[in-house]
């Protein structure tokens, strides 16, 4: 167990399976955690089940798509964060997203608009002089447009580009920004999907990359996914079009 860092991390969308592992690992590293989620009961259970030091965890209600609530949510934080992590995410399959705009719109709202809404507020609070890092969980599906998942992928591509610009915006204040470009993880967002087992990562494995984020802007957990990421980036469009 590490020394108390005296630092606070705010995790938005904290009921994500990956975010829950981040809560555990940040506490092990000596952080206090503000865990913000729509499902506060599930987070109370996490604290109890893992016997986490409850003095280190503050659980708050947060809805990523209730944009009008975000300023008040932030203003009411008793301690402003040193680190902010945006983990909320929503996925419906591409066929559904193409036929039902409400579902597509929900992905845009959770994966992109909600992130921009709350992260802008956090980033623009210059009175929080100890803000040192902002981290977003994005996806390999946002690297290239592919026919199997381009609606979800486009929301993640937008989020990745937003974070790239935010990094430039905040550089003069020495605030780091990281984007996690993630492949398959065994979490509830993927329930029911047939995924290549040899490529699936566990939530605690991905969480390690998040809590240990350093200077590199783009973080791609796992060497197999790094290779896929590198190939995807350089592949000609004619070959990307042949992928699923
Ligand atoms: N799993 C993968 O293969 C994979 C791959 C690449 C990127 N990612 C990204 O990684 C992040 C974490 O996902 P995960 O894999 O840990 O899946 P997960 O367990 O399903 O987590 C997604 C979380 O987003 C939360 N969320 C959805 N709508 C929200 C809203 N309106 N307000 C607040 N929270 C909301 C959900 O909250 P509730 O629990 O309340 O429903 C859920 O806890 C997501 O951004 C996801 O897109 C995942």
Automatic annotation (TrEMBL):
User: Does the keyword Protein biosynthesis feature in the UniProt annotation?
Assistant: no
**What's one Pfam family the UniProt record gives for this protein?**
adh_short
Keywords, comma-separated and alphabetical: NADP, Oxidoreductase
One term of GO molecular function: oxidoreductase activity
Which InterPro entries does the record cross-reference, listed alphabetically? NAD(P)-bd_dom_sf (IPR036291), SDR_fam (IPR002347)
SUPFAM superfamilies (alphabetical): NAD(P)-binding Rossmann-fold domains
Residues annotated as signal peptide: none
Q: Which GO terms describe its cellular component?
A: cytosol
Task: Name the protein family.
Answer: Belongs to the short-chain dehydrogenases/reductases (SDR) family.
Q: Report the protein name in the record.
A: Short-chain dehydrogenase
Source organism per entry reads: Chryseobacterium shigense
């Amino acid at each position: 167990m590490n020394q108390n860092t005296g630092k606070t991390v705010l995790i938005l969308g904290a009921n994500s399976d990956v975010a829950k592992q981040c809560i555990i690992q940040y506490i092990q590293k000596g952080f206090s955690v503000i865990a913000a989620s729509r499902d506060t009961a599930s987070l109370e259970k996490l604290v109890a089940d893992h016997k986490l030091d409850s003095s280190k965890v503050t659980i708050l209600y947060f809805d990523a798509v209730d944009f009008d609530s975000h300023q008040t949510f932030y203003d009411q934080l008793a301690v402003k964060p040193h680190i902010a992590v945006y983990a909320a995410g929503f996925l419906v399959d591409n066929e559904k997203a193409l036929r039902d705009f409400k579902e597509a719109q929900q992905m845009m709202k959770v994966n992109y608009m909600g992130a921009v809404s709350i992260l802008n507020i956090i980033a623009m609070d210059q009175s929080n002089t100890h803000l040192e890092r902002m981290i977003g969980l994005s996806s390999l599906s946002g690297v290239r447009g592919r026919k199997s998942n381009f609606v979800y992928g486009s929301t993640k591509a937008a989020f990745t580009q937003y974070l790239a610009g935010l990094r430039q915006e905040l550089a003069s204040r020495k605030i780091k920004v990281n984007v996690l470009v993630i492949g398959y993880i065994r979490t509830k967002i993927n329930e029911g999907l047939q995924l290549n087992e040899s490529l699936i990562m566990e939530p605690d494995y991905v969480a390690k990359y998040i809590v240990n984020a350093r200077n590199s802007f783009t973080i791609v957990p796992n060497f197999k996914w790094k290779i896929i990421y590198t190939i995807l980036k350089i592949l000609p469009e004619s070959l990307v079009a042949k992928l699923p």
